[in-house]
Predict the structure of Metal-dependent hydrolase.
Amino acid sequence: MMPIRRDLHFKLPAARVGDWHNEGRHVSHFFNALSLFFPDGERFFIHAVRHYRNQIQEPELQRAVTAFIGQEAMHGREHTECNEMLDEAGLPGAPLQGFVYKLTEFMKRVLPKSSQLSITIALEHLTAIMANSLLQDSRVVGNAEPHFARLWRWHALEETEHKAVAYDVWAATMGRNPLRYLQRVMGLITASFVFWPLVAIFMWRLTRADAGARAERGGWWRTLRFLFGTPGPLRRAIGEWFDYFKPGFHPWDHDNREYLGGIEPLLRDLEGDTLARAA
Ligand SMILES: [Fe+2]
Ligand SMILES: [Fe+2]
C-alpha cells in the first residue's frame, strides 16, 4: 500500500464551525477537540519517524515514509484552517492548540527517540481504528455539513492508506524482542490514557465557551450515545484497540483497503464544488 500525498482544500464554512455535525454542537466540538490535536500531533509523528529515516534500507518503505510525511503535513494545514475558525468564533482554539504544542515540544525534548516512535505508532493505531469506524458507517459524518464531512472523510481515508508506515519503520529499525514488544504496548497504554482525557477536557472547554452549546440540552449524553451507542464509532473501535497487544500484530492484519475506493468519488465531489475549487 503506497500512500499518495494530495494537496486539497476544503473551504470550510466558518460560520458552521460550532454546529457542523448533524448531532449538534457537542458532537461538533468532540470532532473539533480532535482537530486541535492534529497539527502539532502530526508534526510530532513526522519528527519521530524522521529520526529513523536513514536507517531504512528498503526503497519502497523509504518512499512510503516520504508520502506519509506529505500526507500528515497536508492534514495539519487543513485542520489548522478549521482550528483558526474556532478562534474567529470566539472559542479557545489557539490556547488549546498551544497546549498541544508545548506538550509535543516537551516530549521531543525529554523522551528517547525510540519512545517517541512507540508513542507515534500507538497514536497512528488510534487514528487508524477511528478512521475505520468513520469509514465503516456513513452516519458518523455522512449527514454533517458537506465541507466538514469531506475534510473528515479525506483524513480518515489517508490515515487508512498510511496506517502501517510508521509501524513498518518501527519493525524495520527496532527488531523483534520482548523488550521492544513491551515498549510498543506501553506506548499504546500511555498514549490512550493521556490522549482521551485531554480530548474530553478540550471538548469541555469548547462547549463551555460556546453559548449555543451551553444552551443545548443533553449534549454530553447525546455525544456519549453517539460515540458508544449508535452509530458508536468508539465502541466499534474497542476490539481493534486490543489487537495491538498481539505479539505479531501488524496494522494490515485488519485489511480494510476496500474503503480506499471512496477516494475517487471524494475527489470528484471536491472537483464539482465551486466553493472548494475557488481555493
Ligand atoms: Fe493525519
Ligand atoms: Fe497518520
User: Anything to note?
Assistant: The two ends are 30 Å apart (CA to CA).
